[in-house]
Each structure stands twice: as structure tokens, then as C-alpha cells.
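Progress narrative, work stream C.
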Amino acid sequence: MLMTPEHDVRSQIQAEMRSVFPVVEGRLQRFYAMQEYHLGWRNEDLTPAEADPGKLIRPQLVLLACAAAGGDPQQALPLAAGIQLLHDFSLIHDDIEDDSAMRRGRRTLWNIWGLAHGINAGDAMFVLAHLAIHRLAEVGLPAERVLAILRRFDEVILRICEGQYLDLSFEGDLSITPADYLAMIGGKTAALIAGAAELGARAAGAPDATVAALADFGRALGLGFQIEDDILGIWGAPEQTGKPFAADLYRRKVSLPVVHALTHSPDRARLAELYRQPALDDAAVAEVLAILDAAGSRAYCAAIANEHHQAAFAALAAVQPPTATAAAARDRLHALTQSLIGR
């Protein structure tokens, strides 16, 4: 599988995700069609669609980590599907909690069908993620290994919920520190990426040292990934991000560059005053940008992201592939990490 083109791997992941959806009688078809809309499989009128699923980084990490640890990635497909369904469940609820009307250029599920349906559809996708992982027993993994994976999977979910709690708690709080912020993204973003790599190794039945190294790799990759995203949210080109320039500033998002400036800038009182306004116009955003630039916030974030990227490479180097095929998979993990730097 891993030597096939990336498009084919993504197709296999999505096919595995589709296989978890039950065949239901007519009264329930719309319920699952709503979820399929969120996944890009249907249009807003619930007719079939073929939206670009994106890179599917998290499930690909599962498959590559499994292979790098000496396992058969074909046996890890149910786990990869479960990881992606979990990610999408979290996005459904995240859109509700953030009052977001749009995602990936399309209206969000709750925005179309209402809050109650949005919550219920997200809950169902949470269950589908678990049902996907239960299929590991059907593809030959020992029952005790599947049970251990499910337990760790739920621990990862709890970490994500903790991170989301911190994120919600920090809204409007201009006193948080960089350490506070890193603790938050360690749960909200990095926990699932770390979990994808760790659980891929567990699916392979890898030694504890390999599992730990791949978990460390994923955690560092996730932290670096989110910090890069914070940089793009302010300074990224619209043609690159698909968002307006400085979109996060117009939203008054308290991302790491802003947290840094609120902590270190001599103009932090003015920055806080601007951020307490109900909305920022172009002149206010230009002033915030000037404060961030003077504080060196972009360079600070780039340096922190680089530290985490280097930690990811170091953890990956500690993985000892048992075969040439496993070594090739580890190389693919290295290449994937490299592709996410400076994206």
C-alpha cells in the first residue's frame, strides 16, 4: 500500500471510512447523509459529491507509523479510518462551539440543519470512529491488542477534550502565557497527531521503545504543525491559505504570535486595548501587525516551531526499522514532516 500514489492511499482510507456507515431504512438515511456532507461526500442538497478530502495527514501517519514499526499497514486501515472519523467528529463539535458558519469553503453541518442535529450527528460520528477500530479484530489483530488500542484511543480523546476546554476557557483572556498556549495546543492539536503515530505502532505490535519514539515524534510534529498554522493565520498569503490576509487578527484570535506580543511587547497595553474592541478594522489590524513585527513575534514563533520540528526528526531517528520496507516507511514519515515545514 505505502508504495502506491498518495491519491490511492487516500482513496483506501476513505473507502474504509465509508464501510463503517450502516445500511439503514429510509427514515434514517438523511441522518447519515448529513454526516457524509460534513465529510465532503455529499452536496448541501445531499446529492453525491466528490469534494477534495485534503491530505488526510492523521490517517496517513497511522499507516506509515505501522509500516515503520514493522507492521502491515493494510491491517491498520480500520485504525486510520477511526482516527480520521474522530478528527471529523471533533470538527463538527468545534464548529458549534466556535459558532463557525463555514469550513473548507462550505457551510458547516450545524449551520445548515441546526444546532440539535449538529450535536447529534457529531455524537454519531464519535461512535462510528470506535466502530471502525473494532474492525481491527476482523483483519487479524489479536483481541488483547485491539482492546489496548481502544483504551489508548479513548485516552487520546480525553486529552483532546481537555485541550478544547482550555481553548474555550482562554477566549477573551489576554493574560495567558506562551506556556499556557502550548499546553492548550498540546491537547487540542498535538494529542491526536501523537496518537495517530503511537497507535499505528501499537497496531504493528511494536516494542515499547518504538511506540514511545513514534508518540514523541507525533507530539512534536503536532506542536510544530499548529504553530506553523498560527503563523499562516496572520502572515500567510491568501492564495496559499484560502483565507484573507491576517484573517486571525480580524477574528481577534489569540494565537501564539499574539500571546507572545501580549507578554513581551512594550506596546502590549495598546495591543490588549485593540483586542478588546468588538471588531478590528483595516487600520486596527495594521496597527496590530506593526506591534507584532516590532516585538519579533513571527520570528519567535518560527523558532519555536523549528524546535519542535527538530524534536520530531530526532524522535523519528530513534525508531529502529526491522526491515527494508519499514525503513522506507520511516523515510516517508521524514518526508511528510519535511513537507509540512514552512507550508
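Work stream C, second folded protein:
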Amino acid sequence: MPLYAFGSNGSGQLGIGHDEDVSIPTRCLFEASEPEALISSEGNSTNSIRRIAAGGNHTLLLFSDGAVYAAGCNDDGRCGAEPGDSLMKFWRVIVRDEVSGQSCETFRDVSACWEGTFLVAAAGDRVFVLGSGAKGELGLGEGVVRATGPVPVKDFPPSGTEIVGVASGMGHTVVVLSDGEVYGWGAARKGQLGEAAKGRKVVWEPVRVEGLPFRATGAVCGREFTVVTGDKSKGEFVILGSADNRWNVLSDAPPALEVYRGIWASWHGVYVQRDGGVLAWGRNDRGQLPPVDLPVVSELAVGSEHALALLDGGTVVAFGWGEHGNCGPVADEQGNVKGKYALIPLSMEGESQVVGVGAGCATSWVVMS
């Protein structure tokens, strides 16, 4: 299952063997052998990339078998290796739980803030933290700003619950639990962790997000807001934060949604994929929102200020701020693909097809079969 990347690469976060930006999809490299694509009895690959999570200068890959790989800046150990130089190729992340004395090799979910990494153990009973965060981003307690080795978040999750998923913005993280509750930590002054936590400005360890109108099933994070999702068949969602309504993230939100397939967030926008297309609102000064002529989208990926779409038929397109080449080789003088979409050139290998796309902090990803 080859993975290709393009865009910002100053710390080697694309995992392509060097630290130069590229605008043409380039095959990612792995320190050891490339992860095996497990083959089912029907001949289909059963080990796919489930999630691509990007920090400011590092990237995490979560495979469906639970394996996690990381590349990019590692001066504080955020990629799971001994602190030091950036990793130019993807490295298998294995953490040792100092409490149990056992190694944790597989994970349920992953996320990344600007300088931190969050790994949910396969059993959903622990969150391991790696990296840095000067304002509560790590969730490890007041004054803890660095974790060069894996540290579990203390006394979390609450007894009787499991962690369903984790999501991070630039400076805050939220965790969805099996009982439908949401907890979070990090930046809180814009209301991204709920109104009750807003006055604290910085939350150093997990607090419950109060006042949710439904049972949460998932969440995504913008730079200063959080979108919590509920029952997609009922259109349930709520936006927390963005107190100053910058880029009209709150005021332009529809009062209600019908059935939707998924919700994504950029730093300053919200994107809803429905069977009829993509509904989006928020910042659009660089063409971050979908152009009006965007064809039917089979899969969407939203980064910090750009988006990728896999169209019916296997074509990949990009739009938004592409200053680092993350929208492909064609952009205007300001580095934007604005009011239109750009076709991403792909070097097809044999009978391979595009099966997924990803987007991070000015980084873009294409998964091949």
C-alpha cells in the first residue's frame, strides 16, 4: 500500500528521505520494511491506513492493524524515538508503559497538536503523550511542558469507560469516551473546551466538556474551536469555541444538518461531506472553501488551510493555500489555488489505484492500493 506525500517538509515530516518541500507526490519511505498490506481470502488488502495525523512538523500514520509510524521533528521525542534529529523516514512507534512494564505496539487512535503526540492504547484504557506543549497541550498536569518519553495521562479515562477517539488542534485536544462524554485539555479561552472551562484559559489536565446536547460519537478540532459530532443520521453536531466568531465559523453554521457522512475542520473552517456534495464555511481568503464546480467527492481530507478531494473515478484534486506545494505544482503568485481546484499529477504504478487522501499542516497525502 504505497503512500505518497507532497508539501511542507522542512523537518522531514513527509517521510520521503530529505527535508525539502515538494509539489509532486513523492513516495514515502520507511526505516524498516514497508508495512505489510495483509491480504484477505478474497484477495483484498485488509491493512489500510486508518488515519494520518499531522502536527506542525511531524506526522503520524495509524494502520488498521494498530501499528503507528512517525516522521519529522523529533528533538523532544515526539516521534517515539530517542530525542534527537528529525526522522526523514517513517519509524515504527512502540512505547513502553512504565506502570505495567509492558510494551505497547498497537493503538486505537492517534492525534497531534503543534508539538505533541497522543497515542490511545489498543484497549482504549490509556492515552500516551510525547513531545512538548508550554500551555497545557500535553494534559499531564500543571507545569508539565515536555515528555521526551511516553507518559500516560494520569487517572484517565474515568473508571468504567474507554476512549473511543482523540482529536487535536494546534493547542488543544479532546477525547471522546464510550459513554458519550467528551474531555479535553490545553487552550480553553475561546471556549473550545466548553463554556465552563473558558475562564481558566489554560487547562493542564483533562476536564469534562459540559453542556453537550447529545451523546458524542466523535470530534474534530480547528485552531480555536471544536466540532463535536453525534448521530450522523440525525445531523447532530455542535461547535464549541471561536468566541470572537472569526471568519464567521459560528454565524455561518447552518442551524441544522440532515444526514451527513463526515465532518472535518481546518484551522478556520468547517467542512461537511454529504451525499449531495460538500458544505463548508469559514475562512476563504486563499480559496480554502470548495469551489462551486467541485465534482462529486468520494473522500475528503482537510488540512490547516487547504483540502484534498478524491473524486469519483480516482482523480485527486486540491484547493486552498498551497504555498509549500501542498496543492500541487500549479498555484497563483500568492501560492493559492483559489476559486478552482487543481488536478494532482500522480505516477501510477502498475494496476494501483488511489484509495485514500490525507491533509495536514501544509502537507498532503495520497494512499495507493
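The first strand starts at residue 3 and ends at 7. No further action is required on this item.
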